[in-house]
Specification:
The structure is a single chain. Helix 4 packs across helix 5, helix 6 runs parallel beside helix 8 and helix 8 runs parallel beside helix 9. The longest helix has 17 residues. It is built from 11 helices and 8 strands. The protein is globular and about 75 Å long. Helices cover 54% and strands 16% of the residues. By secondary structure, the chain is an alpha/beta fold. It has a single domain, classed as TIM Barrel (Alpha-Beta Barrel), CATH 3.20.20. It has an 8-stranded parallel barrel, surrounded by 7 helices. It binds erythose-4-phosphate (E4P).
Length: 219
């Protein structure tokens, strides 16, 4: 399973990359705004800075909601760096844009997916990734993980090449469950990845090993 970090914060991206387990980055307009990145020039420069940190797969989202606008914007984003994956919302013109970019050999990530029907459309249109939002479904009493399971099942049944990118991941158990289900990718905040490290028996076991070693060495 691939790990993407879900942030536009350069320090967090560097920290996750330095850990040696990072496969990519996802951003969205809210995450860019959180970092105070505004204006076309600054946005492009920020995406380039992210691309310079990681090896590949940096999702950059279009703002346009009409076909022509998404194509124009997506092409501009793709020009920034070969690592860019153009992120397109799951709307009617978005489906057309996914199909267009597929034909152009430009990778896409279909975002704001909340049903298996939407995921089926994204796969048929040739999206490279589909992003079902787990946490936002859980927030309104729908089972986000159940949706991941349904999409994985449908894609496996028909052999779709689209990768299931579990998004809106809120905690480490979401990530572990996604791994059990067979999601191809999970995108999450840094704390969800570092949360995997934690176990009290690791901490107490290491403390004991070091204490025994010091005792035997007469320290
Ligand atoms: C990533 O591609 C999504 O935009 C992101 O995971 C949404 O997460 P949120 O629901 O925590 O905002």
């Amino acid at each position: 399973m691939k790990f993407f970090i879900d942030t536009a914060n350069l320090d967090e991206i560097r920290e996750a990359y330095d850990l040696g387990v990072l496969d990519g980055v996802t951003t969205n307009p809210s995450l860019m705004a959180k970092e105070g990145i505004t204006g076309d020039e600054n946005v492009r420069a920020h995406y380039k800075a992210i691309c310079d940190i990681v090896d590949d797969k940096v999702s950059a989202e279009v703002i346009s909601t009409d076909f022509e606008g998404m194509i124009r914007e997506g092409k501009e984003l793709a020009k920034i760096d070969d690592k860019i994956v153009v992120k397109i919302p799951m709307i009617k013109d978005g489906v057309k844009a996914l199909k267009y970019f597929h034909g152009e050999g430009i990778r896409t990530n279909c975002t704001l997916v909340f049903s298996s029907g939407q995921a089926l459309l994204a796969a048929k249109a040739g999206a490279s990734y589909v992003s079902p939002f787990i946490g936002r479904l859980d927030d309104i009493s729908f089972d986000g993980l159940e949706l991941i399971e349904q999409i994985v099942h449908i894609y496996q049944t028909y052999g779709y090449a689209t990768e299931v990118l579990a998004a809106s991941v809120r905690h480490s158990m979401h990530l572990i469950k996604c791994a059990e289900i067979g999601a191809d990718v999970v995108t999450c905040p840094l704390k969800v990845i570092t949360g995997l490290l934690k176990h009290p028996l690791t901490d107490s076991g290491l403390a004991q090993f070091l204490a025994d070693h010091a005792k035997a060495a007469g320290k």
